[in-house]
Write a structure and sequence with these properties.
The chain has 153 residues and is mainly alpha-helical. Helices cover 42% and strands 5% of the residues. The protein contains 6 helices and 2 strands. About 12% of the residues have low confidence.
Length: 153
């Protein structure tokens, strides 16, 4: 039997009802970390009933620009696309419906697609094959299509 210990804001909502551990709960927690990194907020920002994931979803559903949610301390014009992409992935990973969340392999593929590695002042787009050992047995779908598959809240 597995035991899960966690803090408010990191544990997927369905865990409170099922207490079953699975990959989709890990994906949710990872999504919260992505949201923390991009917004500069803590997972349990807000009151006892509001988490960072709920705040981020509400931000998007109200039609607010993603750039307004990004951390002012690290937000730079040259990296807004990358930060927005990671924020979007955080949203996808924290979907309240576990079946709508990507697998961790798909998360990696989306991150690689989003990433623009900075090498000596220039941008170099990472390839999915840079992480091929990590992606064994995964489908090499078009990442844009994969992202859209999960984006329908």
């Amino acid at each position: 039997m597995s035991t899960v210990a966690g803090s408010f804001g990191y544990i997927a909502p369905e865990y409170a009802h099922t207490t079953r551990v699975n990959e989709k709960i890990d994906v949710y927690s990872f999504g919260v970390i992505l949201l923390e990194l991009t917004t500069g907020r803590k997972a349990n920002d807000g009151d006892e009933h509001t988490s960072l994931a709920q705040w981020a979803w509400r931000h998007i559903q109200e039609g607010n620009p993603i750039v307004d949610a990004l951390d002012e301390v690290v937000k730079e014009p040259d990296y807004l696309d990358e930060m927005s992409c990671v924020f979007n992935l955080g949203i996808i990973c924290t979907n309240t419906k576990p079946l709508k969340r990507p697998s961790m392999k798909e998360v990696l593929q989306i991150l690689l697609k989003c990433s623009q590695l900075i090498i000596y002042g220039g941008k170099n787009t990472a390839s999915l094959y840079d992480a091929s050992p990590l992606l064994k047995n995964s489908k090499r779908d078009n990442v844009s299509e994969m992202t859209m598959k999960f984006w329908n809240p």
